[in-house]
Amino acid sequence: MGRATAEYLSKHDFIVYAGTRSIKNLEDLNHKNIIPIYLDITDQESIDKVTGLIYKEHKQIDVLINNAGYGLVSTVEDVTEEEMLSQFNINVFGVLRVCKAVIPIMREKEDGVIVNISSFLGKIGLPLLTMYNSSKYAVEGITDSLRYELKEFNIRVHSIMPGFFDTNFARGNLVTNAKTFDKNSAYSSLVSNLAPVIVEQINSGNSAVEIGEMILEVINNDKFPARATIGDKAKKFIPMRRELSDEDFERRVREHYNI
To answer: What global pTM score does this model have?
Structure first.
């Protein structure tokens, strides 16, 4: 999603600083408006260095897109302390760290847009994805609170909640817990039923370009809603979540995923 968005915005005349831990992965992005830059969102010094360089060059940062993240697939029983902390360190604390660095620059100009890439799983739960779910629930909370906190400085904060998209997420950004995926696990039946379905739905999901299109709409429309869903699964489940009781919604999810 980040790569597709960088390409899409660069073609619409935005100068895009594409933060990455591996510059090599972005060497084929040859558009003059894309500037790959090393960024580790688990390291506040790395973030401050990048924002400082951008500010020195442009004296402003107009848009921040918090896109980095990954998914941990594990039961709560099996998850390790290291896995829990890593999931939140990137998906939640990373968002907070980058916001912490960028907000003063936007506040100085009294102008800016922050877009948090969340997930439709930030509003609904699924088994085996408790850590990922809860991290995205946290991103939704961050979005809600920052909207109040930054309104008087004319800084807009939005959340985009994608469904399943055909990205590198299932191929490279899913981390599995060894105990949960052991053939002798007490949860082996759940894993064998659900995990392949989720991976298949991700790999056959919507095109990531749609995310870039929506982000451009967010930037250009100062009346854009606080959050928006995108992708087939998000558009199906989020409205259903609003309309049904907790128990009825849970029943529908169980039926849909045969769990």
So the answer is: 0.93
